[in-house]
Automatic annotation (TrEMBL):
This is Amidophosphoribosyltransferase. Mg(2+) binds at S294, D361, D362. Residues 465-474 have a biased composition (Basic and acidic residues). Its cofactor is [4Fe-4S] cluster; Mg(2+). The keyword Signal does not apply.
Amino acid sequence: MHSGPREKCGVVGVALDDRAAARPLYYALYALQHRGQESAGIVTHDGFQQHDHVGMGLVGDAFDEADLDGLNGSVGIGHVRYPTAGSVDTSCAQPFSVSFKSGSLGLSHNGNLVNTADVRDALAAQGHAFTSDGDTEVIAHDLARNLLDGDLVRAVRRTMDRIHGSYALTIMHDDTVVGVRDPEGNRPLCIGELPDGYVIASESAAIDTLDGELVRDVRPGELVVLEADGSGYETYQLVERDRTAHCFFEHVYFARPDSVIDGSLVYETRRDLGRALWEESGVDTDVVMPVPDSGRAFATGYAEASQDSGADVEFAEGLMKNRYVGRTFIMPTQDARERAVRLKLNPIRSTVEGRTVTLIDDSIVRGTTSNQLVDLLRDAGAEEVHLRIGAPPITAPCYMGIDMATREELIAAGEDVADVESTVGADSLAYLSVDAVAAALTESRADLCLGCVTGEYPYDIDGETTDRDVRRPGVDTAPADD
Ligand code: AMP
């Protein structure tokens, strides 16, 4: 058994006219690599049977030519999985695939259910055996059961009635590929048109990579069914809610800047967040510099807004990144994380020495990065180091699919801003307000998931408070009535 909570991942599905799906899926997974580096997998269908290959590590390491050649068929789905500390194990690599009485099923999941145990217990009572304690297998089993006495659309609807939480799914049932977005639209999912087919992907950058056109975001609660010959798609609005719960952190940190999510280009949103930082808490230093790469768009917006106001803070690259070092987060121990920051970033002395500096990053989680970088810039001769953060203080864990940290590990959960400022050793520290985040995302606060910065979640989670009128679905063992 492995534990699979808080998986932030990337999903894709394609249906093509007359071309093998394996390579387009492989390229799409490359485009989604930032969403998960622990494992990668593809499942295809050739009209008769399903083929699958999953491997550990980066997309480029998980497949070789022979693996791709063996993935026959012009329809398929793919997955990249984010590493969570501890379990490194092929049993939780995806897509999850099963064969059962009414066909074969493949499933890729980004997100996290908050009622996994309820649904698993109900299914186990009916004789379903599980090989993992992850939520993806639970969704697959529930769907397989519903497919025994219903068509795919009805089966998905019944499963959506039972599961509670965040999920962007690509599913392959025999040679039919579908995409589903959770009723609150927490995790992103979009549809693209290719010269010879259609694609459903976590982010539009994957569509661009395949020379396709973004058609639109999948709507919250919507099911998209691709025609197996790539000629089109049908959509079904299976669940409707009054409010969405889009994850603001996708825009702040997680998604690629060149992706469009829920109608907004992520790069422009980050630039606007940077402008808002200047407006809320600008400090007239000689230079503003990003923590590469995540802070770059914020620092650009900050410098622009300062120039508009006549202050003229110069944008400068003050830290050089070694691009071969992985994201610091995946380091299991604090010591390894600290070493990784130093391995990853080195100051460019001439832009720092003798100058006052504003350093911009998208977020502070444990505080490891900020703490080290403030020291690094001072050692390189910075006269002052002011820290500006493009998100509000993260004070609570994420249950919806972003691997964040526990409350004990979150620096802002136990300290107020002044304490964090002195812990990281900055001359000043300011975060962005929640209202500024909502304004930059052009969404109302009520339609965002802000759980990690407010401690109030749009879902019914054990031991946490909710910001809306939601209740976990009752999970009895019979399928819901249609
Ligand atoms: P920390 O060093 O723990 O304060 O983490 C903050 C740094 O990690 C920032 O530079 C962020 O860009 C980055 N970051 C924020 N959230 C995540 C996440 N969920 N996974 C990986 N990196 C993250």
